[in-house]
Specification:
Layout (H helix, E strand, L loop, with lengths): L1 H17 L4 H48 L5
Length: 75
């Protein structure tokens, strides 16, 4: 009773191994990942501190400007 299940599983594994329908999509995903991962790591390590500083300064400027607008007694 256990043998038909194993034979069936063996046939299924052979069919799955021989099936090449998703090979092109998988290769494309791997190529995109091989390009994207180094780019993301570069941005995170090198460019992100500069971007973070630029946005922080912009937010600080906007906060100061809004305080100047809403402060009583401004001309």
């Amino acid at each position: 009773m256990n043998k038909p299940v194993q034979a069936s599983l063996g046939n299924l594994l052979k069919r799955v191994h021989a099936d090449e329908r998703g090979a092109v999509a998988l290769e494309t995903i791997l190529v995109v990942a091989a390009i994207a991962i180094p780019v993301i790591l570069f941005i995170y390590k090198v460019a992100w501190p500069k971007i973070h500083t630029m946005f922080s300064e912009g937010i600080d400027d906007l906060t100061n400007q809004s305080k100047n607008i809403h402060s009583p007694g401004s001309p």
